[in-house]
Design brief:
The chain is of the alpha+beta class. The chain has 2 domains: 92 residues, 2-Layer Sandwich (Uridine Diphospho-n-acetylenolpyruvylglucosamine Reductase, domain 2), CATH 3.30.43; 287 residues, Cytochrome P450 (Cytochrome p450, Orthogonal Bundle). It has 16 helices and 10 strands. The strands form 4 sheets. It has a 4-stranded mixed beta sheet with strand order 1-2-6-3. A two-stranded antiparallel sheet has the order 4-5. α6 runs antiparallel to α7, α6 crosses α16 and α12 runs parallel beside α16. The longest helix is centred in the middle third of the chain and has 31 residues. The mean pLDDT is 92. Bound molecules: protoporphyrin IX containing FE. Protoporphyrin IX containing FE (HEM) binds next to α11, α12 and α16. Belongs to the cytochrome P450 family. Pfam families: p450.
Amino acid sequence: MFDVAPSVKSWEDVPGPRPLPLLGNTWRFTPYIGGYSVEHIDKVCLALREEFGNCVKMTGLLGRPDMLFVFDASEVERVFRGEDAAPHRPSMPSLNYYKHTLRKDFFGAEENCAGVIAVHGDQWSAFRTKVSRVALSAGAAAQYTVPVAEVADAFIQRIRSIRNEDSETPADFLNEVHKWSLESLSLIALDTRLNCFNASEDSESMRLIDAVQTFFLSVGELELRAPWWRLYPTKMFRQYVAALDTILSVTLSHVEKALKEIKANGSSKSLLQDLVTAAGPRVAAVAALDLFLVGIDTTSNAVASILYQLALRPQVQERMYEEISKVLQDRPMKPGDVNQMPYLKACVKEVMRMYPVVVGNGRQLTKDTVVCGYNIPKGTQVIFQHYVMGNSDDYFTNASEFRPERWMNRSPAQKHHAFASLPFGYGKRMCLGRRFAELEIHTVICKMVQAFKMEYHHEPMDYHIHPMYTPNGPIRLKLMDR
Ligand code: HEM
């Protein structure tokens, strides 16, 4: 314990919903009885701030550590800036179990070779250092500008082939966006085109597509519902493990290929080959696996959400179109183009402010810490509520209005708190794929606005947590060729 100033209040004093004896607060998430819903944690959090203020304690959740929800950007900044060398982000227990128990022989075979997802402390720090030297280097993302644009072109071609007679996308459009995201990420992480839009049955691509889909379908269920898999291997858990095994075996086979190419060429020519050269084949394979686990549905849900928001705003699209046309003048995209498109970038930021795919990011405290004037014990999960802060008038003038301009040419008076909207996290553990995600998103949005006028003619969609924050309903966009 460290000495706390007398003015600092205790953990017991933090306001929050009271846990019931035996039932804790878990019952509040019981359908029809509890009033709280995991799927609508966005609304639960808005209500909690309204009732209890900027710092809310959530205790007594079965199988979970105590949590502290923080809605105050200055406190978020203080916690982030006070982080030690190895910040601990609460991670998916099922993945933890996969890496550290079930497949311990593989992930524990070499020192510091378990990856960054569901890994903590010195092991995380050593692995992250090896990978970030390559993945965050200047130009690591820019080298993919042209191939990522080619994937975006393939996506547009695909859309043209699946639109109905009213030029509307099919009800399962989100699936197509997932395919685009998987195609883009395979290019970056595995140095390969999977041809997701036309993959043949029995191909390696199809095995990977199925495995990734199974992983995403099951991970939300395994993490958000009662963890029966801890007691026995449920059917869903077995499918989840098989999917992870498939993704890992595919990444390993591509690392083998990369090794051969490096030998043949005498140098490395891609992110994967750079990783193999700098950190060895096992690190490269595990890094690729981790990028797959967190880099696909984040990006695809963000793109689906941006397209939907743009379809509601023809004037915004027109302004983007003018900007894009001025920069590209009908030539193909090249590195650096998007830097000449401040309005496009601002639109993406504005959607991520209002509808961040990750509604709250968190840290498990590695030491007792004062937050919002309370002494919060080590081990507590502190959750930074970016959805709520991003939509609060306390931090953004007229927060409910879509105003991309707020991100452009900001005068000191227009400046907002830098920690109120952090879609990619912050600090030593921030998103490792941010540059790649931005490249993919900016490129595909640029291409979509160039190709189509987008409209939406159905009931407005609410958002839900699934497990990303995403429009709830079939994304039926009317996409008319320009
Ligand atoms: C819109 C797209 C994306 C969003 C909003 C997003 C958001 C995030 C957030 C909030 C975190 C946690 C950061 C923190 O704890 O401070 C994170 C971590 C991470 N992201 Fe992303 N991400 C996106 C796309 C990607 C992509 C495309 C990749 C891979 C190419 C990727 C790889 C990672 C990795 C490996 C981590 C874990 C870093 C670590 O723990 O050291 N992300 N991301």
